[in-house]
Design a protein that fits this description.
The protein is mainly β and 116 residues long. The chain has no helices and 9 strands. Keywords: Disulfide bond, Signal.
Length: 116
């Protein structure tokens, strides 16, 4: 009966990666977040992305921010499903978007920045 025991093993925990791989990025740059699940290459999955407290479902395991802004900063995590079994949530990866020196600052976005 040991051949049936694999059905009860929890799906692997996903990993969120960033491309480029650093967690601090300047506003206006492009960054891709990707949800990687071991052993599921080529499988049809549904993914759920969570950013801080809000979540959204997607058929894609990655999302590209073409021109990031400070409002894209936050903690991102994901999980995936194949059939009715969801993986657990990945660890949170925190993306911090920094203002570039020459970007136009909107009112309310200057808090917390050191005055030069």
């Amino acid at each position: 009966y040991s051949s049936h025991s694999t059905a009860f093993i929890a799906p692997p925990k996903p990993t969120v990666t960033l491309q480029p791989s650093w967690t601090q990025i300047y506003s206006g740059e492009t960054v891709t977040v990707r949800c990687e699940i071991q052993g599921g290459e080529g499988a049809q999955r549904t993914y759920e992305w969570r950013r801080d407290q809000s979540s959204t479902r997607s058929a894609s395991n990655e999302y590209t921010f073409r021109s990031v802004t400070e409002s894209d900063s936050g903690g991102y995590s994901c999980r995936g499903t194949r059939g009715s079994f969801w993986t657990e949530w990945s660890d949170v990866i925190t993306l911090t978007v920094l203002l570039t020196g020459n970007s136009l600052q909107e009112p309310g976005y200057s808090r917390g920045l050191a005055s030069i």
